[in-house]
Amino acid sequence: MTGFGVARVAIDSPLPQLDRLFDYEIADELRESITIGARVRVPFGRGSALSDGFVVELVSESAFPGKLARLEELVSPVSVLTPEIYMLCRAVADRQAATIADVFKLAIPARSVAVEKKWLPSNPGEPRQTPRDKGRGERAFVFIEPRTNEFGAVWVQQLTSRAIANLESGESTILVVPDYRDQAVLLSELAQKTSTENIVDYTSQQTNSLRYAAFLRCLNAEPAIVVGSRAALYAPVSKLGEIIIWDDGDTNLQEPTSPYSNARDVALIRQNQAGVNLLFAAHARSSEVERLVEIGYLRDITIPFAVPKLAISETNARVDSLAWQAIRRALDQGEPVLVQVASRGNSVSAYCAGCGDRAKCSNCAGPLWVDSQNQPRCRWCNAHNLGFSCDACGSRSLKQGRAGATRTSAEFGKAFPGTKLIESNGENRLEKVPGGKQIVVSTPGAEPRVEGGYGAVVLLDCNELLSRDNLRASEDAVRIWSNAIALMKSGGLAVAVGLQGFIGQKFALWSQAELAQREYQSRVELRFPPFVRMASLSGEKALLAKVLESLPSEIEVLGPMPVPSKNAAVDDWRALIRYEYSQGPSLAATLKAQVLLATAGSKRVSVKSGRAQRPIQIKMDTVI
Questions:
Q1: Would 349 disulfide with which of 46, 401, 431, 485, CB 3.0-4.6 Å?
Q2: What local confidence, expressed as pLDDT, does residue 600 receive?
Q3: Is there a single domain that holds both residue 473 and residue 570?
Q4: Counting Cβ atoms within 10 Å, is residue 174 exposed (0-12), middle (13-18) or buried (19+)?
Q5: Which residues, in sequence order, are bridge partners of residue 562?
């Protein structure tokens, strides 16, 4: 690229002070080959070691008055950081008060030299299409009919058909799905409808080389359908026409490390920048999407459909007569039955047989439960407690509490002798089971598919899910139940045992919109997310105090309060910050700057990994 003598480089470093562009003089021998988005290695500081980076801009001269360091090492000529993806990474980092390097690790996979060498000759380097103008894209939400037929799940059929239609019109689609099993089903369905050359497997289960090959495929000029989880939103696909998010309320779409972003927010940012279509689809609506629908940012395009056959039994019995009847009816017809229970193992909890106190772990004092091997284990540290001894009375005997998946399977085995029993849980998660007369006992999220759908779906422990110590307990419960019922075939019967009150009434009528509205209104009354945003700062008390003192008076601060820490030598504290959406950009910039000032020269090392940690952790959107 003749005429450009200076490269502006984003250094791939998590250090906040390096989160900006640096100018480098391009060596003469590289001026013809260097491109925007290329990987480079550049000198920085007084050390001799080189730092990794990406070329963001090429200019004829620099505004820096001093002498520029020279860029002499081009790692690869491939433009892996396109301008569109750089803008997305920058926006996500600014929104989350993170460094752009934190986002690079999500957007750009590790390089595979062998894969890259194979890709380069077949890539003629056609010019990529200019992104759409802003404002042309449609933002929408749709409820999908909760049903499985002979062709599979209805939601899979509808989303793949939409992606195929985009492909036929010459546009790419990014399909974001939280669960790896759902991703596999989508990929399988797409393979039956279009050539595999048009499908990009962007799932996290792939090896590094396959992931990099998928990334390079997105750099081609031809449109494609990209299927993956959170990282798929950063796919540099050409001619992007639509982004589809399935089941955005699933916690798997929340980034567990910095920048702590949610796929929903990343999709909204990319849609706004690129002007493409954005569709949220689900069986149940999250409170975040409900807010966007109520303020008019998303349009509900749901078409009325036949609601599932669902019975609610208001009883204190764990399995009542209505549930037994539904199971017997399906088994008599030779159909499979799905029974969803709240927890795995033999017993959800364990108690001292002598005094009745809740059994506690000898290692961390956490609550004990009984696993599928009938061994007491801790829910906090997962340690086995074979030598249990009660602190109160000294008894060494345990009695079990409410039944988990394993004991439930055993009980159904006694009630229906000769019937095949299958258990699917977090430790032994099945993707698919054969059809026929059988009972499948599953924990939430581990329900396997069956060809043609289940003849009956029985939801047990409904009150257990609703009473969990979590602000999102009822929202998550409705989403979990809805996804389980969606595995049922047409004409099947679903039974929710012990579900009472408003949620039971509206769920029986499949009034998902009303349930979402009520959930969101409860957040409005309490001024909890998503009505407002809530950030958290975690670290040592003295450092937190410095940062909190610098915040504007109109920002509401809750705390700080001490929090448990695995490192006894570290005094961990946490503060919550409640703020309006309009205050987000300025607050993120202020927090990032003040944390950098307050923690200059401070060091912190993780006890678990031995690696350096940031003295203060910032989460701009805390899940509470």
A1: 401
A2: 67
A3: no
A4: buried
A5: 573
